[in-house]
């Protein structure tokens, strides 16, 4: 975990998180969220709608983004105010994700930070892009 102070953050700064998405992680997310929609649980249903198999929940990917911004950049002194993700391609199990956070803007006047988010498979296939906004707490 990283406790970066607002004063230490600079535009262009970047952190990367690698996450293995497993069938067990998806099952645990289904148990936790209650989202057992057939696109996530029934391969025949998903294939019948043009997908290669069951899809990883977008909300699970968003949870990994939460880990990225809450523990690495901007880190543990930040409070997530907004998360905006656009899902650009389906995500299937198993896979290894590369999540990248890049500081876009630091505002000392209102103690806030904007972060650009990029989620890719290790192969480089782009899955999601977006932005998050954070208020920064004092150390």
Keywords:
alpha+beta, Thiol Ester Dehydrase, Chain A, five-stranded antiparallel β-sheet, 4 helices
Overview of the molecule:
The chain is of the alpha+beta class. It has a single domain (6-23, 56-136), classed as Hotdog Thioesterase (Thiol Ester Dehydrase, Chain A, Roll). It has 4 helices and 5 strands. Strands 1-3-4-5-2 form a 5-stranded antiparallel β-sheet. Strand 4 (112-121) and strand 5 (126-136) form a beta hairpin. The chain is elongated.
Quick summary:
By secondary structure, the chain is α+β, with helices and mostly antiparallel strands. 24% of the residues lie in helices and 37% in strands. It has one domain (6-23, 56-136): Thiol Ester Dehydrase, Chain A.
């Amino acid at each position: 975990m990283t406790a970066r102070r607002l004063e230490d953050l600079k535009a262009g700064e970047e952190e990367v998180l690698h996450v293995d998405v497993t069938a067990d992680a998806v099952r645990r997310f289904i148990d936790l969220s209650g989202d057992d929609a057939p696109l996530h649980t029934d391969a025949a249903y998903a294939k019948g709608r043009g997908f290669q198999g069951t899809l990883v929940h977008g909300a699970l990917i968003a949870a990994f983004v939460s880990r990225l911004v809450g523990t690495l950049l901007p880190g543990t002194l930040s409070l997530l105010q907004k998360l905006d993700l656009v899902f650009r391609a389906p995500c299937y199990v198993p896979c290894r994700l590369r999540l990248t956070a890049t500081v876009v803007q630091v505002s000392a006047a209102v103690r806030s930070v904007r972060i650009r988010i990029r989620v890719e498979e290790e192969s480089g296939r782009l899955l999601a892009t977006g932005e998050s906004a954070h208020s920064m707490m004092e150390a």
